[in-house]
Amino acid sequence: MKIILLGAPGAGKGTQAVKIAAKYGVAHISTGDLLRKNIKDCTELGKKAKEFMDGGRLVPDGLVVALVKDAVSAVENVLFDGFPRTIEQARAVDGFAAVDKVINLRIDESLLMNRLTGRRVCNDCAAVTHVSLLNGAGKCQVCGGVLQQRADDNEVTVKSRLDIYCKQTAPLIEYYEKQGKLIDIDAGRESDEVFKDIERVLDK
Ligand code: ADP
Ligand code: ZN
Fold it and tell me: Does residue 125 lie in a domain region?
């Protein structure tokens, strides 16, 4: 099974992807995570990707496609999170993976700025949370680790990411609708509610 998770930044792709991978045993391929790992490890790719990511722009298609191709070469069941993000990338996927379902996490744009600027990620276990859930505590509620804000979760960069989503990624909704693979899910709710709908789709 090959699944794509589509949705704006802040729609909850990462949160749902972790749940899906745990329940269905698919390999979770997040281009954002792979790119951040490359930045942390100071690879050539990481050096190239960093300026694009910090500016809230997309990393060039060629770099991202090569990264994903490499990551999926050995796996049968896979969940793409944050990829493809352009029509060009989607065409590339058509050439190397037979996608079964595309789950589109639909959400009102007005919710996204708060979700993203309030997002905090644990340095130790990578759990994702929101400042509104922390009651002033600055520690990870899963492992007690130190929480950090992602470099691109500030207001200026978020605006640019949302703008790029509308222009470059939203057209993929129609692209996959035409292929008969798109399934819409209301992502403006609690993450457990959203996951229940995803389970219904994947259990079919
Ligand atoms: P979000 O979906 O919240 O924006 P991600 O972690 O998926 O977070 O992506 C963070 C950044 O990584 C993007 O703003 C972009 O710069 C880069 N990136 C991730 N996936 C892709 C992709 N498929 N194509 C180009 N750039 C990407
Ligand atoms: Zn933690």
Answer: no
